[in-house]
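Q&A log
Question type: sequence-to-structure
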Amino acid sequence: MNRTQLKRRARHAYMDTKRLYLTTFIYVLIVFLLNYVAGRMNGILAQWGSNAIKLIEAGKIAPLYTQKEWTAFLFAVLIDIILQIVGVGFISYTLNISRHNPTGIADLADGFSVTFKVFAIALMQGIFIALWSLLFIVPGIIAMYRYRMAYYILLDDPDKGPLQCIRESKELMRGHKKELFVLDLSFIGWEFLITISAGILGIWILPYIYTTYAMYYNDLAYPDGSFPLPVVDEE
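Response status: OK
Response body:
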């Protein structure tokens, strides 16, 4: 893999995209708002945990969740699921960019059509990575890279099951995990800028990063460039 060439191709692809930064701004705004609400919910749970620890240390029994804590917990879980789904939508958006397909803000909702499968893939990835991590941290990291392409595979063929997407990702990444790790390292500086700008610079940087990953997936899955035809809604 030639990283310089890969990134150059990504820049050329997204520079021709209409309303690129508007779509990315909407994505970043959605993520910011959801994370803000999730932070408030987690704060409620953290306060309950702090009080429970104090009671236990005092030899008392920790209280059960009240309606307030259960509501916060359920909202936190729901928000995490929505973040996964919207994230898949942005992957779909940049995948279309990388293939010069028609794109639009509506791409951000693509993950909602496969909500259950997105959730199942995220859950399976978490379980498999956690199990591998029990052996040592390195096997856990390797597992994370092994399943990295599962969402791309699902977007290319929504009829595939979650476990099938994970298995195909495993095969696709065979012998390529190290080069994807190095590609990740090459973006650390950009991701640091996004962090210190509270996500604002992500409006300009995220299309570059995600389109590069989409190009990388294209090269692995379709080296001859014969991409699946984009799905067109019938009216």
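Response note: The radius of gyration is 20 Å.
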